[in-house]
Amino acid sequence: MAHNLLQLPGEVLHNILAYVRPEDLAALRCCHSLNEFIDHDGLLFKEIYLQHYDPPATQDKLDWRRELQRLIHFKKTLSLPNKKIKVLELVEILDCVKNLLINAAVDTSSSNLPLLDKLFRAQEKIELLCNSSLFEWARKSLHNNPSESIEDNSRYGESQQVNENCACGFDEDENVGEEWSSMGSGGATAAGATNHIFPTHHRFRQLSAELHCLYGVPIQHLPRSSIGSHHHNLRASKGVKLHPFARSRVYDLRQHHQSSFWGPFECDGTQDVDWEKVEGLMVILAYNIQRFADRCSVHSSALIPPWDKPFIGVTPHGLSSISPKIERPIQLPLDSRDPYNVTGVWMRVVCFLDYRELFTFNFSEDQPLASEPRPPLDTEEALRFIVIKLHTTRIEEPGKNDGQGLPVVHFKGVSTSALPPVDPNANSQIRGTVKLTPQGEVRWTTFSVFHGEERWRSEGIQVGGRRCARGIIGFWFDKDFDPYGPAGPTAFWKVSNDPEEESFNMETV
């Protein structure tokens, strides 16, 4: 009988170690012989990985040891009490979150999605999602000076140089920008602790906003724990509402110009997604939809986007595709060749300000400097739900300015009001395209057509990637890019794969 692990046959020892938790594996390297056994048992890392995480979509030449070590480091980083280190590790954290989402099983057997939900459930983890300039602006309002510059001139079409020295929470360590640059993705080791971290670096803010968008449950109040102990006043104790700040950003027409394609993109012509714009859109759309549902006692799942559970709806292939039965096909039909799963019924929500209010907000005499945000906008918006029926009409090769990984899909359809009051602007023909950006994001462009003439246009990004159930979030605007508007937030998500399904109305909703 073996008296210790090393006396057991290799196969038995392997089977025992395969049940060890990933984070405990390092503790077993307590002697040279056991360390050697673990190092040379390549299959062990694969078995431990597959017992705790969903199988990766691509396993050819996968370094199981490295993947397991990355996830262990990811979980340990999130558990650290030092918030500064976690913020400095945002690149690695976001990369691990994306990998877990990409590989998540689409059914209820997924291990990755419950893990992500558990990891980000605690309040101190939520603070990682609250480091964009939207939250920074809300924090500044506690100083009774919400119009103070956020040092993000790029979103207003000005200089894209970000001032790393503005005092937005890094007072205790002014060199955090340099720390970020030198560490890259995952080099934080022993940085000193701070009470709260409000990154000023543009890349920091984008990473935090993207993580918030993938998390998917829009945060509507500034978390108290992120405010800091020196803000224990009445406003801080009640929480700061974010929707006035998000509304101000969304309806600021300065961000709409040719270099941003009037969509949720950076203002540099690259089609890079501006996740801070997407975050603001998500916050204000969710607020308006919830307010509408509460007032009207509407609880239809068709009218409520899948934004109520963390990390749900951002896994690839979350929308099942149409698979028609075809006998002896000469060529697969368009719907079967469409990688984006366009054909079907979509629910759309459009929000807008009264045009007089929009114009006054943007063009009155009392305007902020180009580098400053407009004041928070606490007002009511109109909201319309629209049913869109789409079908694929053409598939072609991507253009030189498009992502080359997938084709460009053209579609057409009709849109109608889902609920009273019937808005003539909601009832139209619709056409558009869906394609990849050069960075691999899924970009949707739609045109509303009245009597053969294009009137409204929208640009949006499918959060999570193609076929993700979370839907498309973006801006609608005048098709001629009128600098005086109107423009506003919009989102649409799929409710059925059957384009012939009866239209939604008040009775069916």
Q: Would you kindly provide a written description of the structure presented here, covering whatever features stand out?
A:
By secondary structure, the chain is of the alpha+beta class. It has 16 helices and eight strands. The protein has helices spanning 10-17, 32-40, 42-52, 64-79, 83-88, 90-102, 112-119, 123-126, 133-140, 176-183, 202-215, 234-238, 243-250, 275-296, 334-337, 355-363, and strands at residues 344-352, 382-396, 408-417, 428-436, 442-450, 453-462, 472-478, 487-496. It has an eight-stranded antiparallel beta barrel. Strand 7 and strand 8 (487-496) form a beta hairpin. Helix 3 packs across helix 4 (64-79) and helix 11 (202-215) packs parallel to helix 14 (275-296). The termini are far apart.
Short description:
The chain is of the alpha+beta class and 509 residues long. It has helices at residues 10-17, 32-40, 42-52, 64-79, 83-88, 90-102, 112-119, 123-126, 133-140, 176-183, 202-215, 234-238, 243-250, 275-296, 334-337, 355-363; strands at residues 344-352, 382-396, 408-417, 428-436, 442-450, 453-462, 472-478, 487-496.
